[in-house]
Specification:
Blueprint (H helix, E strand, L loop, with lengths): L17 H8 L19 H10 L8 H12 L19 H7 L14 H18 L7 H11 L1 H7 L6 H14 L10 H12 L17 E2 L14 E2 L2 H11 L8 H6 L1 E3 L10 E4 L8 E7 L2 E4 L8 E4 L6 E7 L6
Antiparallel strand pairs: 1-2, 3-8, 4-5, 4-8, 5-6, 6-7
Length: 332
Amino acid sequence: MRATSAVTISVGATAAVVVGALVQATGAGSAGGGLGATLSTSVPAEYRSLVEKAGDTCPEISPNLLAALLTQESGFNPKASSPVGAQGIAQFMPSTWETHGIDANGDSKRDVWDPEDAIPSSGKYLCTLADDVKDVPGDQQSNILAAYNAGPGAVKKYGGVPPYKETQNYVQSISTLANKPSGGKSTSSSQAVAAVNAAEAQLGTPYSWGGGNANGPSKGSCCSPNGISGASTTGFDCSGLVLYAYAEAGIHLPRTAAAQYAESEPVGPGEMRPGDLVFYGTSAASIHHVGIYVGDGWIINAPRPGAEVRYDPMDMMSDLYSVARPVPSKEI
C-alpha cells in the first residue's frame, strides 16, 4: 500500500535571500499538535479519537502502531492516491477494500475516502492479518506490518518479513515511529541552526555515494543505482551530510534517508524552520533523498554523483514527500 506526497509547497525564492530567511525563521513555532495520552506519534486532532479506538481493535495492535502506519501510508491525507491505485488515508487497494472495508460510521456506505470508515477498517484489517500470520516465526509486529505491505502470503512463504527492500524499509520505518517513547523531544532551534551551519561549512564538498559520517566527509562505497562508485571520492551523499551536520549539533541520527525520516516528526508547511529535513520519495519506504531546509523554500544538500554540496530549491524533485523535524533517539 503506497501513498503519494501529502506535502505541496510553492517555491519562489532565490539563493540571495537564504541567509536572511535563516535568521528570521529560527524562532518559528514547534512541530505538530499535542499528543493524546495513549499516543506518542503525532496525530491530527480530528483523527485522534478514531486512531485511539481503532488501535484497540485487538491485542496484537495498538493506537501507536496504527498512527505510525497511517503516517507512513498517507501522512493522514484522506485524499491520498498512489500510482498503483491505493486509495485514501489508509491506502487500501480497491480489491482489499472490497473484502475488508467496513461501514464504521453507520451511514450505509463503505467509503475508502472517508477516514471514519477507512481508519477503523485499517485497524480491523491489521487484526485480520495478525490472525493470518500468527504462526509465522519472528517478531509479531514486524510480520503484521510486512503482511500489510506485501501480503500475508509473502510473509508465510518466507517465514517472516520477506526479502523485499521496500517491505523491509516499510517495517523498519513504522516500527521505529510506533515504538518511540511518549514525550519525545524534537531538536531545539539552537541545535537546528548548528546543523545548518555545519552543512553550510561543507558547501563545495564533492558528492560521494555512501560517503560521510559523524566525523565529516569520507570515501564512499559502490554503487549507486546508476552504477557509480564513491569508493575513490571523499565527500558526502545526501544522508551522510545530514548525519554529519546533526552530529556537529550533538544529535545522533541513523545513516539512511529512510531511517532518518523514521526518527523525525512531520511538520506542516506553515511550521517549517531551518534545520528541518526535506524528504523525497513516493512513500516513506521508498525515500531516496534528503536535504536540510534553510528557509524561503531552499535546502542545502548533496544532490547526486558528479555534483557538490550546494543550495537547491526544495522543489528540485517532483516527488517531495514530507518535511520533518528530527526527534533524536539519543544525543552524542
